[in-house]
């Protein structure tokens, strides 16, 4: 299904992040009116779309009024007065951080560093978007809040674990949102919602108050309809805190948008990294990725079918870090009420901590060398983001640990290696299945290559115009 078949007018939500910021700065619309509209749409959609865990109506409207006063006094900031959402793993002073869990939680007393930077840029944070328990799944559901739904198909999951953020952007509730990605949790929901999702270099956006998240696997990243908006949000949120363990040199993501990426050597790899369960690439997704490759060739790039061989060592580095990370977060939330599968994973993480975790982390430099050698011949890799379109939202319900692992691995076996490596990867929309479900592809680079990936993604967007496709509102 082509993008032109999915163009649905939605005037209330047509402006993206950059254009909405300009409209507010120029006085064409006030921050109060814009934020009120976003809050009204969020609250109207909650019974059906269910994208948010926390909605900050009173606080956001106060902040919008303050933004209008600052604008009237001549202040200009990148996002002054613009409504933004963050994920419910990110601290906002005065709000709880439930991280998808049930239970009673004390409000946080300080903003996360990423939130501090969003506020410094003038953004008005209208709420905290839903995520699954401790970010473990490519589904966004849980006993504490139910199921978040995919704007493109109410029966489907929006993905996860940044599914609430993705659903909010795809539905036009907010122009962009911040998510986090520990095994694909920005890229997967981006692919299933026709969005651009950037997993940046580790440390690009601070995870403070955590010096690193999930032992270096998890990074924060933007979700937006366009590359320009995703790059803007990345630039605004990026930057270190003094306590961060990882502090890459700064980049200018926005400057890469519209810049000629040059003629790139691209490896097209459909190979699935090793998994212990059965996986297979859906033929419609394979065809969509091949179609992107054809577009890239037409743009002058060299695209060669060349499978990236990940090896077994990368899985040996991922599993202990992931499970030990779950245990660490679960232990830090004694008031949380969680699913038995979360408890089981936390117990595994307790066993895999200590010496096993230390050994897993020592593998990373070897993996950089091994997989990095592939890039002697290529500038980047083009690969599927997921192996299947979005599953039904309820497929995750009422099944055990083994069945859960089989389900999530079959759907999403592609993204996690880049979390081990800490390198950037960008999901770009790759079209729609015959059933009208969005699918995506990854542009994957080595360390600190976000500008190249963003430049190429913007070139593809200019050719394909995926931003014109919008879901038909049902929420």
TrEMBL record:
SUPFAM superfamilies: Amidase signature (AS) enzymes. It catalyses: a monocarboxylic acid amide + H2O = a monocarboxylate + NH4(+). This is amidase. Signal peptide: none annotated. Belongs to the amidase family. It is an enzyme of class 3 (hydrolase). The lineage of its organism: Bacteria, Bacillati, Actinomycetota, Actinomycetes, Mycobacteriales. Its EC number is 3.5.1.4. Residues 35-453 form the Amidase domain. Pfam families: Amidase.
């Amino acid at each position: 299904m082509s993008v032109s078949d999915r163009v649905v007018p939605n005037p209330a939500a047509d402006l993206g992040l950059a254009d909405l910021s300009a409209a507010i700065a120029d006085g064409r619309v006030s921050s109060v009116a814009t934020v009120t509209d976003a809050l009204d749409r969020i609250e109207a959609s909650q019974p059906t779309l269910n994208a948010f865990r926390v909605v900050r109506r009173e606080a956001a409207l106060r902040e919008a009024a303050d933004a209008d006063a600052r604008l009237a006094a001549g202040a200009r900031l990148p996002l002054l007065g613009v409504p933004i959402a963050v994920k419910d793993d990110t601290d906002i002073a005065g709000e709880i951080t439930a991280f998808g869990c049930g239970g009673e939680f004390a409000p946080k007393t300080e903003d996360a560093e990423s939130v501090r930077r969003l506020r410094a840029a003038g953004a008005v944070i209208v709420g905290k978007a839903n995520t699954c328990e401790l970010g473990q799944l490519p589904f966004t559901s849980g006993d504490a809040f139910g199921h978040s739904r995919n704007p493109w198909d109410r029966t489907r999951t929006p993905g996860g674990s940044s599914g609430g953020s993705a659903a909010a952007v795809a539905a036009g509730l907010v122009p962009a949102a911040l998510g986090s990605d520990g095994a694909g949790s920005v890229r997967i929901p981006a692919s299933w919602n026709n969005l651009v999702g950037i997993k940046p270099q580790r440390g690009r956006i601070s995870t403070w108050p955590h010096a690193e998240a999930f032992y270096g696997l998890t990074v924060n990243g933007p979700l937006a309809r366009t590359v320009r908006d995703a790059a803007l949000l990345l630039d605004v949120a990026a930057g270190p805190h003094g306590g961060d363990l990882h502090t890459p040199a700064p980049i200018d993501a926005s400057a890469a948008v519209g810049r000629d990426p040059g003629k790139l050597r691209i490896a097209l790899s459909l190979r699935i990294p090793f998994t212990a369960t059965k996986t297979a690439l859906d033929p419609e997704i394979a065809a969509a990725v091949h179609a992107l490759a054809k577009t890239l060739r037409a743009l002058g790039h060299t695209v060669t079918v060349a499978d990236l061989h990940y090896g077994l060592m990368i899985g040996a580095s991922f599993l202990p870090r992931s499970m030990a990370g779950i245990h660490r977060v679960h232990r830090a939330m004694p008031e949380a009420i969680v699913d038995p599968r979360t408890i089981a994973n936390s117990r595994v993480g307790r066993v895999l901590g200590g010496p096993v975790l230390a050994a897993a982390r020592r593998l990373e430099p070897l993996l950089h060398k091994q997989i990095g050698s592939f890039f002697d011949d290529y500038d980047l890799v083009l690969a599927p983001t997921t192996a299947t379109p979005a599953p039904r939202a309820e497929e995750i319900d009422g099944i055990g640990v083994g069945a859960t692992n089989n389900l999530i691995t079959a759907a999403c076996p592609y993204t996690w290696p880049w979390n081990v490596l800490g390198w950037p990867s960008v999901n770009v929309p790759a079209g729609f299945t015959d059933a009208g479900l969005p699918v995506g592809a990854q542009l994957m680079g080595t360390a600190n290559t976000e500008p190249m990936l963003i430049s190429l993604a913007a070139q593809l967007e200019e050719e394909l115009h995926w931003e014109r496709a919008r879901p038909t509102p049902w929420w």
